[in-house]
From TrEMBL:
GO terms for molecular function: electron transfer activity; FMN binding. It comes from Methanocella paludicola (strain DSM 17711 / JCM 13418 / NBRC 101707 / SANAE). It comes from the Archaea. Residues 4-139 form the Flavodoxin-like domain. This is Flavodoxin. InterPro entries: Flavodoxin/NO_synth (IPR008254), Flavodoxin_CS (IPR001226), Flavoprotein-like_sf (IPR029039).
Amino acid sequence: MLDVLIIYDTNTGNTEKAAQEILGGVKESGASVEMKKVDDTTVEDLKAARGIILGSPNIYGNYSGKMRDLVNSKLVQAKPSDKVGAAFGTYKWNDDNLKNLQNDLRWKGVRIVSEGVNVHRHSNGDVVKKLRELGRKVGEEAKKAR
Ligand SMILES: Cc1cc2nc3c(=O)[nH]c(=O)nc-3n(C[C@H](O)[C@H](O)[C@H](O)COP(=O)(O)O)c2cc1C
């Protein structure tokens, strides 16, 4: 079984860049990790991961439609109540995407083990540290669940 699966949606690369920082943090924890685009993620992928980290840009005041589809169908089918996880995002003007994604993950039964991180457009400076810390925390908790 995989320790942590990072799933992200992106149109112009900001959220992918944030996901890469998180990937680095998970690796620092010593956990096994993979990163997938939301389109390429299957129910089997979700079932096979102890920890999941989901990230999306803000699209019209919420997290993206593709990510909502994943949360409401594939994630539910994967029965995630024994999983740990966290959420992240990127935005330009308002940060509801993160709040909503984190709430929905919790509502589906995922145990949120790190504060979410929402990046204002680009990942640099202090926010990189926060993204790496998020990855480390989820990695450590997923290892405990081995
Ligand atoms: C169609 C569209 C709608 C957007 N709506 C919002 C919005 O409501 N609030 C906001 O803060 N940013 C909004 N944005 C900006 C993106 O969330 C932001 O640029 C994000 O970093 C893009 O991530 P990506 O590079 O991973 O695609 C929107 C962008 C697009 C393309």
